[in-house]
Specification:
The chain contains 1 helix and 11 strands, in the order H-E-E-E-E-E-E-E-E-E-E-E. The protein is an alpha+beta fold and 143 residues long.
Length: 143
């Protein structure tokens, strides 16, 4: 009787271990599947410097920039970041003759480029660090 019972428990335990391993493999697969290589050959974009997992809201790794981009907490912006320290319309990035300019839109907590608060329109250079709220981006211009 004990032999049969121990045999049943042994096989149930093995099945549980296989199910656990299968669920881990499935999670790894879904995580790898979610990583998409983004190719920005000759374009301009903002790349997130923060670790996504450390932020309490959803955010993308890359934000491609067009000719006129608004960033803020409001849904009418091109780049929407639900950080409570970001204003509804926080900043604007404008392209003018292959140069990009950043303008703070009188946000409550300010916009910082390379650690300096932006008080006026500022020309962005490749590699500039832009800080808004709890988020830090690097400006990449490959054009």
């Amino acid at each position: 009787m004990y032999n049969i019972l121990s045999l049943v428990f042994k096989y149930v335990f093995i099945v549980i271990i296989y199910l656990f391993i299968f669920s881990i493999i499935k999670l790894i697969y879904l995580d790898i599947k979610g990583i998409r290589p983004i190719s920005f050959d000759n374009s301009t974009y903002l790349k997130l410097i923060n670790r996504k997992e450390s932020l309490p809201f959803k955010i993308k790794e890359y934000y491609p920039l067009d000719d006129n981009i608004f960033l803020g907490r409001g849904n009418d912006n091109e780049i929407v970041i639900k950080d409570p320290y970001i204003s509804k319309k926080h900043l604007r990035i404008v392209k003018d003759e292959d140069d990009y300019f950043l303008e703070d839109l009188k946000s409550a907590n300010g916009t910082y480029v390379n650690g300096q608060r932006v008080m006026d329109v500022l020309k962005l250079n490749n590699g500039d660090r832009i800080t808004v709220g709890q988020v830090e981006f690097i400006f990449v211009n490959r054009g």
